Amino acid sequence: KAGVTQTPRYLIKTRGQQVTLSCSPISGHRSVSWYQQTPGQGLQFLFEYFSETQRNKGNFPGRFSGRQFSNSRSEMNVSTLELGDSALYLCASRTGGGISTDTQYFGPGTRLTVL
Amino acid sequence: AQTVTQSQPEMSVQEAETVTLSCTYDTSESDYYLFWYKQPPSRQMILVIRQEAYKQQNATENRFSVNFQKAAKSFSLKISDSQLGDAAMYFCAYRSAENYGQNFVFGPGTRLSVLP
Predict the structure, then answer these.
(1) Of the candidates A113, A108, A111, the residue with the CA atom closest to the CA atom of residue A24
(2) Chain B contacts of A92, Cβ < 8 Å?
(3) pLDDT tens track, chain A, 115 positions
(4) What CA–CA distances, in Å, run from A90 to A71, A112, B42, B52?
(5) What is the nearest CA distance from A76 to chain B, expressed in angstroms?
(6) Does A56 contact B102 at a Cβ distance shorter than 8 Å?
(7) Peptide bond preceding B9: is omega within 30 degrees of 0, i.e. cis?
(8) For residue A67, which phi and psi values (nearest 5 degrees)?
(9) Would you call B46 and A106 a contact, using CB atoms and an 8 Å cutoff?
(10) How far apart are CA A66 and CA A28, in angstroms?
């Protein structure tokens, strides 16, 4: 099975712009979670989508949004970029249902730099 | 809400030696799963090992093993015969088995250095 893929891998934007990141989960996985990772704050949960619905949400401003499509692919959008949004954005997928073997698998991440 | 704590921000170990990374968690649930993830400098998070709370036997994956103490809510990772490739950030994580819709909870991580 192919793993979780994320595009693009690297992105450079300027303050005030918006950005869209994409994540394709492992085949059969219906849950996609997004995390922001920075040296100062560590790994912070953004949100989780399951069957096209946001199921969980972290403590991030409304500039951060996401969606999930019927094929479980997910996109994350950040509007009005700030310097502090520079981070590694990780996507993770899992089956999301009530099975005991449900484990989260991560993609390689998108490195976003805001200038 | 569940929380996961890793009290050692950084650790180092000599190549071929053994090192133990600590993790404690707080939960009121009796059924759950615990994980250790590794994030090397390449940044790809990799699952190292997984433990079901209802199993008394500690999980083992080659040189990686855990010491799961349910009553103490402790879940440490032991790496035997440490190799240079083990140098990475290690995250401990919790997942509820009673509420499968609940998201994974991660600890802050421990950075492990392996000295040649």
Answers:
(1) A108
(2) 45, 104
(3) 689 999 999 999 999 999 999 999 999 999 999 999 998 778 899 999 999 999 888 889 999 999 999 999 999 999 999 999 999 999 999 887 766 667 889 999 999 999 9
(4) 19, 11, 13, 25
(5) 17
(6) yes
(7) no
(8) -160, 165
(9) yes
(10) 20
Which site among B55, B90, B103 would you substitute to test the A interface, given the most A Cβ atoms closer than 10 Å to its Cβ? B103
Residue of B100, B102, B106, B111 to mutate, interface with A, max A Cβ within 10 Å: B100
Cβ-contact B34, B86 below 8 angstroms = no
SS3 category, B20: strand
∠A66-A69-A74 over CA atoms, to 5°? 45
Instruction: Please give the Cα distance from A98 to B25 (Å, whole number).
Output: 22
B15-39: burial string, b at 16+ Cβ within 10 Å, e else: eeeebebbbbbebeeeebbbbbbbb
Of the candidates A32, A36, A67, A25, which has an alpha carbon nearest to the alpha carbon of residue A48?
A: A32
B37, B50, B103 ranked by CB distance to A45: nearest: B103
Place of tokens 């080659």: B62
pLDDT given at position A99: 66
**Nearest Cα residue in chain B from A95:** B100
